[in-house]
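Box 3.1. Reading complex inputs
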Amino acid sequence: MKKIHIVGIGLLGGSFALALKKAMPEIVFTGHDASEKNLSDALALGLINEARTEADPDTDIVILATPADTLPKILETTLNQTGENTLIIDFGSTKATLCKAVENHPQRSRYLAGHPIAGTEYSGPKAAMESLLDRKVFIICEMEKTDVHLKGMAYEVLEALNMKLRFMDPEEHDAQLAFVSHLSHISSFMLGKTVLDKMEDDKNVFDMAGSGFASTVRLAKSSPAMWAPIMLENKKNIIEGLNRYITNLSKFRDKIQDDDFEGLFQEMQKINKIRDILDLS
Amino acid sequence: MKKIHIVGIGLLGGSFALALKKAMPEIVFTGHDASEKNLSDALALGLINEARTEADPDTDIVILATPADTLPKILETTLNQTGENTLIIDFGSTKATLCKAVENHPQRSRYLAGHPIAGTEYSGPKAAMESLLDRKVFIICEMEKTDVHLKGMAYEVLEALNMKLRFMDPEEHDAQLAFVSHLSHISSFMLGKTVLDKMEDDKNVFDMAGSGFASTVRLAKSSPAMWAPIMLENKKNIIEGLNRYITNLSKFRDKIQDDDFEGLFQEMQKINKIRDILDLS
């Protein structure tokens, strides 16, 4: 493998480049970003070797790491622009819309639908970290639709990054991620909003916040440019998750209202089993 | 200062002892715990020097670090049992009920209502850490009701632990903590429940969970024995916070339902200012 082109050199695209430069130092990285500032930061930080608006013809892999709503168009354009030996992988957080958008594209077999389960609340090339993807899960959807030879290059790269592969269909992916990722972001944003609004009565309320609050509200620092599109792309599943979450909160509130000590205790004790599940993973 | 007695030698009581043993090695620690297992663990771990059901007459400070619902009775008993030179400090997460319970006690001036803003999702003496209280906020309520001489001992100890003192009245304390602590715990428990229930459809849902989910759901590992009492003690404020949180979640869901990209984007961008507030504190 000689050349990789990255479109969108932010937290994910940049971390991918940093880690792979270390694991496979022979690879040349070119890249593009819609933001000139991000592009010049990415060059200055050495995340890419060269800025190019399009991938060179001898590019082995093009990585698309832009916000979810931009991916269908960029994926289609990139499939049209690149040649038969170039594999295109996206890193988008939702998969059903994108897989549907290219299902009839004559070059569909040169695309691999991917999703690295990794991130922080920060964004942009300066947030990139060499360790971000290390030993994380990488989900591949519709793997049978990707050319077997080109897919080999993806496995080579993902193995070099120590990523753990999981395979699932796009609808299953979106349904699961709504619960374990998208819902967390909403719960965190709305907790942040609730306490920010409380500041209007109590100016010093944040002074009393401990590490527990910081942990639950951390994701409220996330980028709206990345997250607003995800909310709409995965609308159906997220609304289902949110409705269940709101119902659970309302029932818990009613138990408090009814002074139901035993009910609250039992409920929290049951949920405590998440300790074992999380500590295993 | 020569002797401190700790009632409830778990995460908080144990961490207090560990840190103070280092800062003031001349102090002898005695202690009691309702759980025999906790008591023997505390002795084995060297958190206390000696197990005693009651404080010795020459004890300078008694620390009460038991669940919120047990505190009114333990505080009253301890005020009755101890002599005029002993200060009693509690570490409870709610303050209004407790301050009210002892407002007419003839020995009220030997009590200091405290709350260290520190914790983890773990509990018991084995969870104790020397660094837990270091540079954390310690809230004192109704400080004017505590004898000035006895209060001096509290300041000496809290300064030795590098704690930052804040003073407020019990009602203000409970109103603020409902938002920055108690609500976080509920949001986390209910997020945990929502995803655990989802496991019934999708057995492997947790396999897809990343660090963001782990962060928002961390507090769902917390002890029900500690948290069920807090929910009821601070009922009014928590229900107010929960209602606001549920309203915010419902409005955000409606924006998703209406495909209101701009509304979602603006809302998340406004909440992003929590970055500056949290990074300052």
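In summary: Chain A is about 50% helix and 15% strand.
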